[in-house]
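Hi there,

I know you've been waiting on this one. I reran it after we fixed the sequence typo, so this is the corrected version. Both the input and the resulting structure follow.
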Amino acid sequence: MINNAYIVLANGQIFEGKSFGASGCITGEAVFTTGMTGYLETLTDPSYYGQIVMQTFPLIGNYGVISKDFESAQPHVRAYIVREKCDHPSNFRCETSLEPFLLKHSIIGVYDVDTRQLTKIIRESGVMNARIIALSGDYTKDKPALTELETFNNPATKDQYLAQIASYTIVDAVKTVTCNSCKIEENAEVVFKQSAAYRAVPVTPEGLKINDQVEAAKKGKNLDGTNKKVVLWDFGAKANIRRELLKRGLDVISMPSTATAKEILATKPDGIMLSNGPGDPAENTEIIGQLAELTKSGIPLFGICLGHQLLALARGAKTEKLKYGHRGANQPVKQLATGRVYISSQNHGYAVVSDSLPKGAHLSFINTNDNTCEGIAYSDIKAFSVQFHPEASGGPLDTGFLFDDFVSIINGKPVPGIQA
């Protein structure tokens, strides 16, 4: 049975498609991502919490659902919009198709929609809220949703209905998703073995892959052969951040977003990793305060995405919301120290204001499309951060060397363009 679905934008425009996965009604912040692959990583990336995600690539689901590719234990999107879904995936690792996966996790999906037109609207008007009304074909079950359609179509109630959609806000995002990826953690040996099978191993700045676990782990060890220790402060971490640290011989301790500076320092870490995560960075005042204390410890810090923004805020910089954000696996970033351009994976709606950087902080990367801040290096503390995702599962792997730079700083070795 084919069931109708309706996407009602906060500006009053409505799109009709077909529903798959769960049915019902849901409101969220509508965003688009331009990745041609990696839809499983998108669905399970905690950074998408509170958002209705639309894929611009036309066919989604062609390699099915593969749990080993998940970035956390479950999906975090509010709903999922695609042009065309694949019901018969073809891949030797496939476990199931996309629809049963969405249904299992009560995620509403919409397909057979003009995603190109929807993308143009968001790109020109900016990110906006939307309401999805997905019917199941059961009149009794669908009655509340049909009532909503009547409310929207009634001139006397339409404005109030749209105002309710526009009023939706994402709240408690970081607290909701923290440590979700811990549920799928595996040890270093398993991680490297699985990664080596697909050549997803550490890559040097020259592009050479290190497919030997012992060689890759050398710099992460102490003189006595034990592993150096890194705390992964989890604001909604992608699992691949932890995997990249493990591949380099580091022991990783995941700690929740509610952890204090005192609790983190009590583990006696050699380095602290500030993870990605969802929501408005400026709302996390408690984390920012604790992070300001950590910057006084002298322990090396490496921030990714939200972690990058929080570190900047803790040092006195400002953040701003972008018109429609950067989401996809094809974002070009320029490293200012070398002039080299890398293709990066990104997922963020906020950015650090470049002109607000305090003394001791300078731009290390910029986005070549809009010149926004993509990286910061700090000269007064052992810290650096990037807005993009160097762990980049499922790709590209261009900037994975930044994890090696982090290990080098932990080992007290200067890294050109990051630490003098």
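Quick highlight: The mean pLDDT is 95.

Best,
R. S.
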